[in-house]
Amino acid sequence: MKQDLLKKIRAMLSTQDGLSGQPATDAEINAAEKKLNVRFNEQYVEFIKLFGGAFGGIDIHAFQNGALIGKATVTEMTEKFWGTYADKLPEELVGAVVISDDGSGNPILINTTGEIYIYLHEEDEAELLYDSLEALLTKSFP
């Protein structure tokens, strides 16, 4: 990600306690990828290695999240999602991991190519929100 964008994120996260967590370690990332049998998108990995579970325009969950983000990990949220919707997943969400939700029960996911989707659980449909995590962050931190 661009350094000026990361600088804006750091500045915003420093304004309030609880918006960022502990940076993710390689061991945490490797363990989660192994458990879920996926490879996390590189922009997501970069973000969580810098900020942990943190606010990025939306709550972005990792392993050790900021207090205002919530305790649920990306692994827990993804396993719950897959357990509930595995037989209904559209192709673009196969291998995607849950990084957030919209507060109404609709998970927000990032797939291996980095696209950010919302899964509308009542309609069983996926809607593309952003082409990448960087696009989400750029819109959130102009």
From TrEMBL:
A Pfam cross-reference name: SUKH_5
Organism (species): Pseudomonas salomonii
Domain Knr4/Smi1-like residues, every copy: 23-139
Coiled coil, from the record: none
Identification of the protein by name: SMI1-KNR4 cell-wall
